[in-house]
Design goal:
The complex is a heterodimer of chains A (180) and B (400).
Chain A lengths: L2 H11 L4 E7 L2 E6 L4 H10 L7 E9 L8 E8 L6 E8 L5 E3 L8 H12 L2 E3 L34 H13 L8
Parallel strand pairs in A: 2-5, 6-7
Antiparallel strand pairs in A: 1-2, 3-4, 4-5
Chain B lengths: L2 E3 L5 E3 L1 E5 L11 E7 L2 E8 L7 H6 L7 H5 L6 H16 L5 H30 L2 H22 L8 E2 L2 E2 L5 H25 L3 H7 L7 H7 L3 H5 L7 H4 L20 H25 L18 H6 L1 H12 L7 E10 L2 E10 L6 E5 L1 H7 L1 H5 L4 H10 L4 H5 L1
Helix pairs in contact in B: 3-4, 4-5, 4-11, 4-16, 5-6, 6-11
The chains are: A alpha/beta (180), B alpha+beta (400).
Chain lengths: 180, 400
């Protein structure tokens, strides 16, 4: 099935949910509202014609100052049998950074969603185990947000764990050989 | 924590064991917290992120050209494959195509790195399970292939050899001859490894019927590469969406049936032979011609001697370093390649500036590490080691 046809079918099946369809280099993106995302995903997965059995990728994007809903969660779906791909872009506004988890449809989304939560602070309703995954548990802030500095925070806002290591190394200096 | 009273009135309790992050069998810095009932794993919780270097964040703050060395450090065992994946993604975004000769060279390189990665995999996997000899044999061939990498690129591990729109330097006939000698001899070496373990009773007991995952479930988990094909799903990016010259060479995609550790081992061993077969055909077919696309000057730095002599080249060099390519289109692409571990995807969002607005790396090891609890829970502690080996993860790629 052609990706554009699938986009049309989503429009028919879920009227009012599709905000727009764009195509670039032969790849089709469907821009969606976030409310019925789980239903749309489940339908795309179960419908024998679309048969999106494989979630290639799930990630967040931060459009700070460029677009009205600040965040997007991007899903790359693929059908192994049919060989077609579709990209879903769900809009997540800044004030309400919550979206339904797709773990009930694709189990493999589990860690991707945890990473998205870790990096962008978007929380996923119904996720079985939503914790930070790449950053330490007591880390503050979400590193891939565009207003997060590349080199991280320094000074007061430095990560607690790093400060502890520095303090410890200060304390251990009294055991250095030269100091006798 | 479940507590129970055993037959003879002894009280038994689950034991929590922290395995890693410095355990030799975790292939890097993976930490598993295992709840054990006797020797049976009740719950397995992986902790990753020890090697997180923020490759995605760094990629957003570098030009397309200078983000290339970052991709070396994803899967450091097969850095060439990552480079090829990245340049393919950027080429798709910009809508340019590398010349035929460069595509052949890239295919050769990607398959060489598949061989070097699979050799490491079989060596460490067998070592973890207790077959030490394979390690010694396979590192002999790994040295050989790393020497070939050095001959071509000047580096053994972090090669940064492909360029957006082509490759850095042309291959010499001497290199092709040495590589041809290697691929003729290599299938015999694979037979040698198999003689050591294929029918070994201990090996069979440790791998057959361990870590079974059905085809449907494997797809649902998002597994790729040989980890998926061991369950019998015929999905290989090289066949499904051919890039470079994979549509011009003959090769088979080996499939397993049972979806256990042994079938995945069989798949990877067969892939070694297929890779040698692809390289052989590429060397025989490689055409003469340029190695950089005409548009590549927008991405690749001009030769140093020109920079020192000509004003245009100097300006060009300056703009490329400070601003990046000025002709980026506004759009987004997802481009996937088949790396040794599975499907490596790059999702690049461009806003028209010289740097990617968003550079997402879909790392196969990240997905594969998430399936560990599913494979291990309810099985023996010793099988956890076999399972870590069979999903073939590299933590540099998992944590990015």
């Amino acid at each position: 099935m052609e990706p554009l046809q699938i986009a049309e079918k989503i429009k028919e099946k879920f009227p009012g949910e599709v905000l727009g369809v764009t195509e670039f280099r032969g790849q089709v993106s469907v821009h969606l509202k976030k409310e019925k995302l789980l239903d749309i995903c489940r339908w795309l997965h179960d419908d024998p014609e679309t048969d999106m059995d494989y979630l290639r990728d799930l990630c967040g994007v931060d459009y700070l100052g460029r677009k009205a809903p600040r965040y997007e969660v991007v899903y790359h779906l693929y059908s192994i049998k049919e060989g077609h791909m579709l990209r879903l872009r769900a809009q997540v506004p800044e004030g309400d950074t919550k979206i339904d988890s797709v773990v009930p449809v694709w189990v493999g989304a589990n860690w991707h969603e945890r990473e998205c939560f870790d990096m962008y602070g978007i929380s996923f309703n119904g996720h079985p185990d939503l914790r930070r995954i790449l950053m330490p548990e007591d880390w503050e802030g979400h590193p891939l947000r565009k207003n997060y500095p590349v080199q991280g925070f320094t000074g007061e806002k430095e990560w607690k764990g790093y400060k502890e290591v520095l303090e410890k190394s200060e304390r251990l200096k009294e055991f250095e050989w030269e100091k006798q | 924590m479940g507590e129970a009273v055993g037959e003879k009135g002894f009280q038994t309790k689950e034991l929590t064991v922290s395995m890693g992050p410095q355990h030799p069998a975790t292939h890097g810095v993976l930490k598993l917290v295992l709840d054990l009932d006797g020797e049976t794993v009740v719950k397995c919780t992986p902790y990753v992120g020890y090697l997180h270097r923020g490759v995605e964040k760094l990629g957003e703050n570098r030009t397309y050209f200078s983000a290339l060395p970052l991709t070396d450090r994803l899967d450091y065992i097969s850095s060439m494959s990552n480079n090829v994946g990245y340049v393919n993604a950027v080429e798709t975004l910009f809508g340019i195509e590398a010349p035929e000769r460069a595509k052949y060279i890239r295919t050769i390189c990607a398959e060489m790195s598949r061989i070097s990665s699979h050799i490491i995999w079989v060596a460490t996997h067998a070592l973890d399970i207790g077959a030490m000899t394979v390690f010694l044999y396979s590192f002999r061939e790994r040295e050989w292939i790393l020497d070939l990498f050095e001959m071509l690129t000047g580096a053994r591990l972090t090669v940064s050899y492909p360029r957006i729109g082509g490759v850095r330097n042309d291959v010499s006939q001497e290199f092709l001859d040495s590589l041809y000698k290697f691929v003729l001899e290599f299938p015999g070496r694979v037979d040698e490894y198999e003689t050591l373990i294929d029918q070994n009773r201990i090996w069979l007991q440790r791998t057959k019927g361990i870590g079974i995952i059905s085809a449907e479930e494997a797809v649902n988990w998002g597994l790729t590469g040989a980890t998926l094909r061991g369950s019998g799903v015929n999905y290989d990016v090289r066949k499904a969406n051919p890039y470079d010259v994979y549509d011009k060479v003959q090769f088979d995609v080996p499939l397993g049936k049972a979806g256990d550790v042994y079938d995945r081992y069989r798949c990877r061993m067969e892939e070694l032979r297929q890779s040698a077969r692809i390289i052989k055909q590429c060397i025989e077919q490689i055409p003469a011609g340029p190695i950089l696309a005409p548009e590549a000057h927008k991405f690749v730095l001009p030769p140093k001697e020109n920079v020192l002599k000509s004003m245009e080249a100097l300006i060009h060099h300056f703009i490329l370093i400070t601003k990046g390519p000025l002709t980026a289109p506004v759009g987004e692409v997802y481009s996937a390649t088949e790396v040794p571990k599975g499907e490596l995807g790059f999702y690049i969002v461009s806003d028209g500036s010289g740097k990617p607005y968003r550079m997402r790396v879909r790392a196969p090891s990240f997905v594969h590490a998430s399936v560990l609890p599913r494979l291990s829970e309810g099985h023996l502690l010793a099988d956890v080691i076999a399972n870590i080996g069979t999903i073939d993860i590299v933590l540099g790629e998992c944590d990015r």
